[in-house]
Amino acid sequence: xxxxxxHTSHEEHLREQHLMLDPMPRGKMNEMVMExxxxxxxxxxxxxxxxxxxxxxALFYKWGVMIxxxxxxxxxxxxxxxxxxxVNTVFWIGISHAGTFIxxxxxxxxxxxxxxxxxxxxLMTTFGLIQAGFSIFMHMGRVWLSYWLMPYPNQRQLWPNxxxxxxxxxxxxxxxxxxxxxxxxxxxxxxxxxxxxxxPDGTWQKxxxxxxxxxxxGTEGEWxxxxxxxxxxxxxxxxxxxxxxxxxxxxxxxxxxxxxxSTIFGPYFVVGALHSGMGAVxxxxxxxxxxxxxxxxxxxxxxxxxxxKLMLIISxxxxxxxxxxxxxxxxxxxxxxxxxxxxxxAGPMGWMWFGMLICNVAIPWAILWNxxxxxxxxxxxxxxxxxxxxxxxxxxxxxxxxxxxxxxxxTWRLYQPGIEVWLGIGTLAFFxxxxxxxxxxxxxxPVWEVQEGQMAHSLKKYGRETVVAVSDLE
Amino acid sequence: xxxxxxKLHAVGAIAEEAEGKWGMVxxxxxxxxxxxxxxACAMENNIPYVEEVDAGYGRSMHWIRTExxxxxxxPEVKMSAYQPMLCQQCGKAPCEPVCPxxxxxxxxxxxxxxxxxxxxxxxxxxxxxxPYQVRSFNWRDYQDSRVRPxxxxxxxxxxxxxxxxxxxxxxxxxxxxxxIHKAQDKAKSEGxxxxxxxxxxxxxxxxPANAITFGRIDHPESLVAQLARSPRAEHHxxxxxxxxxxxxxxxx
Lengths: 474, 252
Description:
The structure holds two protein chains of two kinds. By secondary structure, chain A is mainly alpha-helical.
C-alpha cells in the first residue's frame, strides 16, 4: 500500500514537472491558447499605448529630424565614424540569432523541451532583424539613396561593390530575414488554421486567419508536406544563421583597424550573438509566463532550467573566445593594438570593459550552475537582462571605443552619443511593441507541436518503476 | 623606374599602381606649421566652414591638417616637427574595397583615389578603414545657404571649378584634380606634355616655406621624384602596404 502511494506521487511529480507528460485534451488546449490571445487587460493597452508613443517620438520623429538635419545631430565623429547605430545593429542581429538557434538546432537534435517556446523564439528573430535593419539604415548619411546598395539592373550599369563586406552584409541579412520569416510562418500554418476554426464568422480576424492559413485542413498529405518543408528549412537555416553573424563580424575583421582585424571574430561574434539571444529568449519567456493567461501550464520551470544550462555553456564558450581574441591580439604585439587593449581596460570607459566581463561571465557562472536557481523564472530574467547589458557593452567596446584608437594619434577623440540614444530606445520600444501586437494576433504557443510531443510521450510501469517512454514520430 | 613590390609590402599590386603618376613630397624640416596650406585648400576646394560647436567636437572638414606632437608636460615640453597630413592617394587604398556603392574609386588616368560625391550614400566605412584618418564627412548641410543664411556671402567666393557637397557625403583631398585637368587641357591644346612645375596644388602654392612639392612622381628627373629619392624620405604607415603617393622628408 505504501509502495503504491509512493509510485503515484512519483508519477504526479513527473507530470507536474514536465509538460510533455502532462497531456491535456486537444480541444481544451486549443481553447487555452485562444483565450491567452484574447484576454487583454487595460494594463496591456496602457503599456501598448506608451510604447507606441515612444516609437512615434524616439524612432520616427527623431529619425526624421536626423534625415532633415544630417548626421550632425548624432554623436558620431572622426574617428568614431560608427557609433551606437552599429552597436545596435550587431546587438539586434545577435538577439535574432537565438530564435533560430532554439528552433532549428533543437528541432534537428529533437530536444523535446523546445516544443512550447519555439514560436516565441522565432518571433524574436524576425522582430530583431527589423530593428537591426532600422539601426543600419539610420546610420547612413543619405538613407534616401540606400537602394543603391541593391544589385538592381539599371541603365548606367552600376552595380554595388561586391568586394565590400557591407554588400555581403546586406545580402546575408536579407537572406536571413526572408528565410527566418518563412521558417516562422511554416509551423504557424496549423495554428493559424486552428485559430481560423475558432474565430466567429464576420470578424476581421477570421479573414486574417483564413488568408494566412492557406486553406490548411489537416489532411495527411498536408502534414507530410509541412514536415518535409520544416525538415528542409531546419537544416538549411542553420548554416545561414552561422554565416550571417560571421559576415557581420567581417564588417570589422576585414578592416585594417587595430582591435578589429582579428581572425577569431567570426566564431566570437556567433557565440556572442547566441549569448545575448538566449538571454533575450529567457526574458521574453519570463514575461510571457508572468503576464499571459494559461502560460504557467505551457512554460514551466523545466524550460527555464534547460535554457539555463544552455546559457551556462554559451557563457563559457563566450569566455573562451573572448580570452582567445584578447590573447592573440596581445601576443601579436602590434603597438597600436597594445595601446588599444590598454585603452579598453584603463581608459575612461574601462568600467564598461569590466562590466562586460562581470555581466557576461561572472554572473552567469555564479548563478546558473545551481539547478534550483536556474529553474527560478525571475532570477533567470535578471541574468538574461544582465547578459544583454554585458553583450551591449561588448559591442560598444568593439565599435566606438575601439574606433577611438587609430594609427593617427592626432585624431584620437572620445565618442559622445547624441540623438542615437533616442533612436536606440525607439528600436527597443518597437521590438516590444511588435511582440505585444503579435501576442494578440498569433498563437504564441505552437499548439500542434506541443500536442505532437504529448502524444509521443507516455509513462509506463515496469514492475514498480515508472519510466518515461518516448516513441519516434517520424 | 622599377618597383620591388615585395619590399613595399604590397604583394599582388600591379606595377602601374605601385609606381603612381602624381606625387607629393613634404619636407617636415621646412614646415613651420603656419596653416597656410589648410586655408588655401579650403578656398580652392570649397571646403565648408563648420560652426563653432561642431568644430569643437572635431568635425571641421579640412582636407589637410597640420599635426603637431609634443613630449612631456608643460613647461618641459619637447615639440616634434609639424606634420601636414592629407590624403596619401594610396596605390592600394584601404578605403576603396570597403565602399559598397563604388563611391570611392581609383582613377586609371591620374592614378589617384577619387571620391564620387553623388554616388556616396554615407556608410562612412571608407573613413573607418583609412589608416591616415584624412577623410571628412558632411555631418550637416554646411554649404546650403537655405539652411545657414549666414554663409550666403561666403558662397560668393566658391571656386566654380569645384562642386559643393551636401549632407551625408564623404569627401577628401583630390590632389586638386581640377588643376591637373586644367593643365592637361592647356597642354593638349598646345600639342605638348604637361611640364614639371607648370602648375601645382593649392597647398603647395600657398606654402611660404616651400615645404610642399607636387609633380609627376613617375618622371625620374622631376623635382618631386628627385626629392622623393632623398635619404630622408619616408612613407607614413608603409608597413600596411598602402603605397602612399605622399613622401615625407623627416627632420635631418
